[in-house]
Amino acid sequence: MRNRRAGSESKPLVTVFIPMYNAQKYIRECLDSILAQTYSNFEVIVVDDGSTDGSTSIVESYSDPRIHLYKNEKNRGIPYTRNRGLELARGKYLAIMDADDFAAIRRLEISIDYLETHPECRVIGSMCDYIQEGKIRKTPGQIRRDECQNYCALFRSPINNSSAVIDLEFVRAHGIRYNEEYFVAQDYDFFVQCLPYTRIVRLRERLIHYRISAGNITNTTIQKRKQERAAIIQEIQRKAYKNLQINIAEDDLNMIVEWTSGDRAAVKVKDYDKIMDIIEKILIFVPRRDWDGFKRSIQRRMVETFNMLPLSWREKWRLWKKAKPLHGNIYAWVVYARLLKR
Length: 342
Prior knowledge:
By secondary structure, the chain is an alpha/beta fold. The protein is built from 13 helices and ten strands. The chain has two domains: 11-219, Spore Coat Polysaccharide Biosynthesis Protein SpsA, Chain A (Alpha-Beta Complex), CATH 3.90.550; 246-341. It is 42% helix and 17% strand. Mean pLDDT is 85; it is low at 1-8.
């Protein structure tokens, strides 16, 4: 590999993969953040999915030999483009980037060091800061240590896709790919496929700046195809229960999946006790060492549900106390304080 820094030959090659579509506004910032990394033994693969703006010209303007641009023959969509990135990558590890995001300067160094020293973890992500309307906002609930996210996958994608670094040999050995039939949540499904074989860990460091756009194609698509999206999410969640070998009654599974994937506003007060009972049944299958991450996911859903219930603060407090066995730490009180502010 050309253009390495001193000593980098002993470090594994990393492929930084960037799928791109009409990203001329941000792609330079994205690429510059990779070229500035403290870890330098990498290649950058940019796969353009039929851009009609100046995105490809910007990528072509770079002279760094580590940057490689590939073009789909026409617009094929994000899951096809991501699978092409999996095929083209030559590195031991694949670091995923969205074309409108940018990385912290030590993203690769910290991620690769973790993977090299934790063979039980073949897929990792990190905390992220979000960029909205040009302003960076910190994500709430900064974790104090690296956390396993496998059981969080029952309710949501375990890590942010743009922060993911994965072992390529691992995903190829298990035939893990992005589902090209899904118009949303392909990354969520990808990570759920990994669940039977590895621990998925979210690092405590904030290594990605993730851009949220009001015109984001995902947000627009979700509004237009809300029911189809919900069906896909439920299908993925059911896979997560199967892959984690969590066996609960079909009626319970239907109720919890509908709650976590659908409209929290549809939950009635009478359903709340039943939901809490189901969560306690699920908790039996969760290893004690993974409770923290699991409970954080539950707390987030509970706050969303509470905010939708037409109850007084006193009534909400009664329901919250019922769920205290799922918390048992100061974080529960912080969450409730947030609830009261709504």
